[in-house]
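Duplicate of #3305? Posting structure anyway:
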């Protein structure tokens, strides 16, 4: 037996196998997601959908907004679901008041120059919003942000729960207060993790809370979203964004994501989010069931 030859052949086979695995891993589509429930759900749903259609994919969720965007621009993330208003204001520094359609068209054009393609927007508008407990909203007659401003300026000692990002964003708390002409006292702004703001409002630790409009805890906890009667917040249409190079290399992906986007609206996302945050189901299980119910897998 030619032992040397045998080991040589074995080494070549192993090397070839390792190379094949490396190429397979390199070709896998990387799906990103931010660090809150809706984004983790969309990353999981997208990954499961791609894999079900024979497209290798891996998930990297739980990232901060700026980190995730930078990772996509750098080619480390191929796809993730972004919000039109976030791209407009935070990434492209546009502060013009635009309609939902105008916002989408503007970010689609601006981000194309960076090698990013905005596919079809969903009907899920996960805008920032301020909410109150329904009983308090009714008893204090605060139904809109103008009502809230009037109450605070009139001496009402109201506190607000906000995450650190919103407190610092160019479409966040400070410019919101400037638009409506009021200001919470410094002691009445309670900064905390975004996931804790809902619980703080529910448990009456604060009077007002920052929420996402499609969060399932809003209806589950009987909160009322205060009407943005001066349209301070832009549209935040949730939309799949893909690197152009990735799309060109994998032409099957865009139609799949557009079909998925067409299935999503505020009610659907609120229900999915509630299944995780209120129903305590796993993100993986909720994603699998949604794809089955939607006929996409």
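Output from current build:
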């Amino acid at each position: 037996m030619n032992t040397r030859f045998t080991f040589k052949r074995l080494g070549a086979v192993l090397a070839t196998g390792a190379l094949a695995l490396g190429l397979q891993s390199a070709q896998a589509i990387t799906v990103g997601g931010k660090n809150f429930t809706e984004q983790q759900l969309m990353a999981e749903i997208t990954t499961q959908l791609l894999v079900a259609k024979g497209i290798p994919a891996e998930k990297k969720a739980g990232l901060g907004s700026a980190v995730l965007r930078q990772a996509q621009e750098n080619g480390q993330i191929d796809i993730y679901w972004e919000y039109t208003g976030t791209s407009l204001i935070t990434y492209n520094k546009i502060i013009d008041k635009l309609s939902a359609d105008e916002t989408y068209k503007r970010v689609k054009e601006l981000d194309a120059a960076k090698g990013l393609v905005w596919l079809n927007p969903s009907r899920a508008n996960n805008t920032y919003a301020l909410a109150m407990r329904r009983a308090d909203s009714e008893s204090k007659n605060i139904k809109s942000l103008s009502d809230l401003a009037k109450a605070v300026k009139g001496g009402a000692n109201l506190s607000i729960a906000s995450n650190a990002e919103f407190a610092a964003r160019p479409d966040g708390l400070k410019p919101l207060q400037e638009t409506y002409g009021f200001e919470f006292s410094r002691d009445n702004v309670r900064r905390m993790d975004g996931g804790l703001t809902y619980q703080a409002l529910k448990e009456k630790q604060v009077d007002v809370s920052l929420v996402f409009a499609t969060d399932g805890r809003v209806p589950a906890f009987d909160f009322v979203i205060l009407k943005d009667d001066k349209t301070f917040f832009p549209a935040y249409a949730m939309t799949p964004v893909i690197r152009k190079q990735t799309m060109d290399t994998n032409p099957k992906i865009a139609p799949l994501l557009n079909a998925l986007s067409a299935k999503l609206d505020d009610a659907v996302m609120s229900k999915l989010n509630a299944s995780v945050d209120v129903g305590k189901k796993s993100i993986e299980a909720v994603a699998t069931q949604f794809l089955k119910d939607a006929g996409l897998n």
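Confirmed duplicate; merging threads. The domain at 128-225 is CATH 3.40.190.120 (D-Maltodextrin-Binding Protein; domain 2). Residues 1-26 have pLDDT under 50 and may be disordered.
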